[in-house]
Amino acid sequence: MTRKGQGGTMGTSVFLCLCIILLTGGSPAACAGNSGSASHSTAGTVEKPILLNNITDAEAFIGGAEVVVVGFFQEPESPEASQFRLAAGRIPEVPFGLSISPAVLSHYGVAANTVTLFRTVDNDRRDLDMNSKDVDAEKMTRFIRMNELRLVTEYNPVTAIGVMQSSLQLHLLLITDKMSPKHPERMRRYRAAAELFKGKILFILVDSNLKSNERTVSFFNLKKSQLPALAIFHTPDEEQDVLTLAEVSIKRVQDFCNRFLQRMQKKEDEPEEKALNEEL
Question: pTM for the whole thing?
Fold first, then answer.
């Protein structure tokens, strides 16, 4: 079953509404702690980030993972660099690099004492200036957790902020039960579909079991009995569509996305066709 809708009369953007819904259902600070809880135990054995001595090293490092973090410093043992290492120890699943090379800093257009997160999903980056803010390892960890968008990003009160700030204006949500025995296979297929739309659509996972996501599910007029389901929306004009699924497949996700993209393209072409007809 597929349902189409347009939220233009709601006064606020669909995504902003979703953010408000999500944020009121949970504590961002608590979520930041939870998202890194598995790695906090490693903070006592901090591994030194990879030293990036030149531009070639930096480019290879940045291109080697979905999300990487690089600290640009003047001195490798500065207080700021020490806080950077602490943050690296708290997030072992994210590669961390460190460079004090003036050539590398110049190449990426950053000043010393800047922490930059690079991500491939939307070919974007986020900079954290440690010169103008009282930034410690805790704040740095939150900055990374907030912005570490991936090929498929799980929706929670922290990543919601990064999703909202993404340059990608099309967002696809897979709303499903992570506890289902079918979840690993669903994610394999969903991730494979995400590869086909990299740079066009931001793929998001919403766990229907989380209480903080209940109002996100109801926002799309869905019930748990109708899940799994896909929900897609275009942030600038709030156009949206919903598709309930008997099961997730690469083809169904691909067809659903393509239909929506064609619809958006037709909508963009209509004003041009109207203007051309008026000229004639």
Answer: 0.76
